[in-house]
Structure formats: structure tokens, C-alpha cells
Design goal:
Elements: E1 5-10, H1 17-29, E2 33-38, H2 40-44, H3 52-63, H4 71-74, E3 85-91, H5 93-100, H6 107-116, E4 122-128, H7 136-143, E5 148-150, E6 153-155, E7 165-167, H8 172-180
Helix pairs in contact: 1-3, 5-7
Length: 190
Amino acid sequence: MEKIKLGYAICGSFCTFSKALEQIKILSHKNLEITPIFSDFASKTDTRFFEAKDFIEEVEKISGNKAIKSIVEAEPIGPKKMFHALVVAPCTGNTLAKLANGITDTTVTMAVKAHLRNNRPVILGISTNDALGASAQNIGRLMNVRNIFFVPFKQDDSIKKPRSIVCDFEKIEDTVKSALNNEQIQPIIL
């Protein structure tokens, strides 16, 4: 995976930020060139998990690259062919819905749209409380879109949150490798 340029987009599933951070560390140690991309909420919202500014600084430090945090900064991703692959993890139900319906009004959706124009893989790592509810139709729709691949996922708390799904962040690297070969890693559902 050396010499691979990877965009890594982070949406506002704040409880999974530590898992995303760990994967960025692992991928950066494998000599991937990682450019972080933040949704508006992820880049501006302080939570009990992280202060937004501190989280961005940590991700930029690990990746060695300045984060993309606006639609204007994300638009050149396509014309400049900036990445071999683009990961969105965590990918929220809101982002899933926008991608499934062609809505490009956020930094992350613009990054995905710009990247897809080059027929290069986008890897989605779902993290949403309504994946088996309102978001299920969007997941199904995106599973049929060319160059969209999914990090394997499972229910994270079937008793207290029966519709909630979270990807297995530890499978991001393998999913990227498969996607670069135009293959969906299996099984998708764990």
C-alpha cells in the first residue's frame, strides 16, 4: 500500500472518533499519504469525546497534512486527482442520505463527488443509530453504486440500540486494499 494517496473523511459520529484516530495512525505508519477531511460538524463541535480544535490538530499531526474543512477546499479533489482512494469513516446517516440522493452541500459530500468523477474507490465506514431504520434504504442504494465500497459492519448494541450499526474500524485497511482492486471485501455484515 506504499505510495497510496488516501483521503480520510470524518463525519460527526463523535463517539467513534478515537477509533478513526487509531486507524489514521495505523495507516500513516504504513507510509500512506493521508489527507484528512472534516465535515462541518466534525470540525467545529466540541464534545465530551474531543475538543474539535484538539482533534483536528492531532489528526493533522499524525497525517502530516493540513485538513480539508470546506466545500471550496474539497472541490479540487476531482480535477487534481488528489487520491487513489477516499475513506469516509465514520460515515453518518446524514452523509449516507446525501450521498444516496446526490446532494453535495457539505465538505465530505463534495469530496466524495469530486473523487468519484475519476472512477476511483470511495470506502464508507458506517456509524449511525438508524442504519436498520431510516438509513437502510440509503445503504441499499449505495451498495449498488459503482466505486462505492463498505467497511464490514455490525450492530453495536442490539438491545439498547436495535437499529444502530457501526463499521469494524480495524477492517478499513483491508477494505481499502480490496477496493483498490475493485472488489468489495466480504462478508460485509459481521
